[in-house]
Structure formats: structure tokens, C-alpha cells
Write a structure and sequence with these properties.
The chain is α+β, with helices and mostly antiparallel strands. It is 27% helix and 25% strand.
């Protein structure tokens, strides 16, 4: 005769087969092995750890290892019912993290849903939905690397994000047009848990600024406020475009980043180690990963426009320290790079191939033309 535990485990197996329960309620990854018996949701191991941060609201147990009592049984809710309750009014622009995103984004998503109930009461979304946001963030100095408090203002009406070197300054130190702004969390690269990299175009070149705040909610609110401003800008810029077209354009993570060696246009200088960032069709290189400006940028077009990538260097190439070469062929010249490992080479090749295999968009032809006539 089956014990109570065995009967409960059999019932849990049946529940996991129900629509919605086969994926984590918070990050969407398949095969959740944990559950919050107070919220009635099935979650993955990683998200179960974040639920422990809100232990007053969410009590979690392993579906496989922990004993369950009938009083803790979660059969009455399930992921679809919980989603209908806790995600009633998630704004279209609000970033819903996946298992691949940093812990900060996932932690704040879980807190926003269950602890702060931001998507049940629209007035709780004001920090990122109001169209205006003002506050202080710690910004990395361009020259000395020191983090100092700077006042930031985001205003949808003016279409800009700006910051001031002094809190009572009348004129901003920098004005960033929402039309070119991007934001991406980079805690490992920046070296602080809540580190955000903001980029914008200045004279058609990419400028980086690195900011953080001790309060994780503050940083995620800034991130979603930027996404909201970008969303409303793009709705005006592209009337009639659907959300499925607009949402991927709000913010983006880089296709790839890491170190490679490079040589100059004559291919006679020695190869130098540089930090590379592949952002859409711009391959930028920096002396240091946290530099404000790139030392140079390479435009990578599509194969239809005579761009290609080769997994080796010309036989004439010399001065490399790293053995695994890559040649990017453009209509005007060849760019030579070298990777430290074969794995790095394959990873960069795959990233370049993604870009080269994608047909160019009309706006990208304008960027290409700028690169060709760059002063």
C-alpha cells in the first residue's frame, strides 16, 4: 500500500504535466524541480534560491528531495493561475528575464511580482512608467576609474538621458539621445553586482558610461525606465510597427565580447591585445574593457554585400602571439585578428557568421556609408 509521501509525489508528477507547470514560473527554463508551496508555483533550482530572499512570502521545497505534507500541497494553484494573478499588468516594455540573465534582473523580477506586487497595482509601476526619472548613480570616471555620485535625469518629453557632474549644476555634462541609447547589465565586467553599461552615439561613435547603485531595485527601475523611453520613442518613429518588432529594439545584449589580438591596416605592425565588443554590426575594440571610447570600430555587413569571415590569417601575416587566426574580408580591406584558443576562435567565428548571414537593413546602409567616409 502506497504511503502518504508516495501518493503526494505521484500527484506532484501529475501536476508537473499540466500546462504551464513544466517550465519555471519565473525564468521559463524547462523541468522545474522545486516549488513554492505558499505561492503555489513550480520553479527551477536557481530561482528557488532567489525565492529564499523573500522567505516571509515564499517557502520553497525540493520536489525530489524534501518530504511534503498534504497541508503544504500546491495543487490548488499552479503556474498559469499564479501568472494570471501576479503578472496581470506587466508593461510591454518591462524586461522579463530568462535563465541566461544576471541574478540581479531575476531577483528583482521575482521581488516585483510577489513581494511588491507591481503587476497587480499599476500605481506601483510609477518609478519606470512616469516618463521622467531623476536620481543619483555612481558613475565611473573616464580617466581615473573612480566611481563618483552623479545626478541623472531621464525625460521622455525631451527624448534624452543626461547627467550632471555636480548635483546643483545647471548644464549637463552629457546629453544622450534616447534614439541611440542602449543599456545592458554587466556585473562581471564592471566588477560591481549592480553594474550597468550605458552606451550612446556621440558624433556617430560609440561612447560607454558605467554606473551602479547599491540598491538593486534602483538599478532595475532605471533600466526599465530607459526601456520605457525607448519603447515610446520607437512607437512614434515606427508607427504601425507591432510589439514583436519593437520590443527586441528597446535594449540589447552584445553578440559577443572578449580579447583578441589585432594588427593595423598595413598588416606589418605587430599584433596587439585588445578588448572587442560585437554590437549589432559594429565590432569595436578597446585597450581596456572599461574604456569610455573605442580605439576603433569595424563595420561588418552581409555576405550579399561582399563581407566574409575566414578561420585563418594570410600566410604573409606576422607578429602574432596567439595562434588561432581570423580574417574579416570587407569590400575595402581585410581585418586580421588572432585568438588565444581554438574555442575562442570558433566562438568569434560563429558570432561574425551570425551577422554576415543576416541581410542588411536600410538604416544599416547609412551606417556602412559613414564608416566608408569616416574622417
Amino acid at each position: 500500500m502506497a504511503s502518504d509521501q508516495e501518493r503526494i509525489r505521484e500527484r506532484i508528477k501529475e501536476l508537473l504535466k499540466k500546462p504551464g507547470n513544466g517550465n519555471c514560473a519565473d525564468c521559463g527554463v524547462a523541468g522545474p524541480e522545486w516549488a513554492s508551496y505558499t505561492l503555489g508555483v513550480f520553479v527551477c533550482h536557481s530561482c528557488s534560491g532567489l525565492h529564499r530572499n523573500i522567505a516571509q512570502i515564499s517557502k520553497v521545497k525540493s520536489l525530489l528531495l524534501d518530504p511534503w505534507s498534504s497541508s503544504e500541497f500546491i495543487g490548488s494553484v499552479g503556474n498559469i493561475a499564479a501568472k494570471a494573478k501576479y503578472e496581470q499588468i506587466v508593461p510591454a516594455f518591462y524586461y522579463q528575464p530568462t535563465s541566461k540573465d544576471c541574478i540581479l534582473l531575476r531577483d528583482q523580477w521575482i521581488r516585483a511580482k510577489y513581494e511588491r506586487k507591481e503587476f497587480m497595482f499599476v500605481e506601483r509601476q510609477e518609478p519606470y512608467s512616469a516618463g521622467y526619472r531623476e536620481g543619483c548613480l555612481l558613475k565611473r570616471g573616464r580617466d581615473n576609474g573612480q566611481y563618483l555620485s552623479r545626478k541623472f535625469i531621464l525625460t521622455e518629453r525631451e527624448g534624452v538621458l543626461k547627467y550632471f557632474n555636480k548635483h546643483d549644476a545647471r548644464e549637463p555634462k552629457a546629453i544622450m539621445k534616447i534614439s541611440t541609447v542602449n543599456a545592458t547589465f554587466q556585473p562581471a565586467k564592471i566588477g560591481v553586482p549592480h553594474g550597468l553599461q550605458i552606451t550612446y552615439l556621440k558624433d556617430n561613435s560609440t561612447r560607454n558610461i558605467f554606473v551602479y547603485h547599491e540598491d538593486g531595485k534602483e538599478m532595475v527601475d532605471w533600466f526599465n525606465a530607459i526601456r520605457a523611453a525607448r519603447y515610446h520613442y520607437l512607437q512614434v518613429a515606427f508607427p504601425g510597427a507591432s510589439n514583436s518588432e519593437l520590443l527586441p529594439k528597446l535594449t540589447r545584449n552584445y553578440i559577443k565580447e572578449g580579447y583578441m589580438e589585432k594588427t593595423g591596416p598595413k598588416h606589418t605592425e605587430g599584433f596587439k591585445k585588445r578588448w572587442f565588443t560585437m554590437d549589432e554590426r559594429r565590432l569595436m575594440y578597446f585597450k581596456d574593457p572599461l574604456d569610455a571610447y573605442a580605439r576603433g570600430e569595424v563595420f561588418i555587413g552581409s555576405k550579399e554585400n561582399s563581407y566574409s569571415v575566414l578561420p585563418y590569417l594570410p600566410s604573409s601575416a606576422q607578429g602574432t602571439h596567439w595562434p588561432f587566426g581570423i580574417t574579416i574580408v570587407t569590400p575595402d580591406r581585410k581585418f586580421l585578428f588572432a585568438c588565444e584558443t581554438e574555442e575562442d576562435q570558433k566562438s568569434w567565428m560563429a558570432a561574425f557568421q551570425i551577422v554576415i548571414n543576416r541581410p542588411m537593413l536600410p538604416r544599416e546602409y547609412a551606417v556602412e556609408a559613414y564608416f566608408k567616409h569616416k574622417p
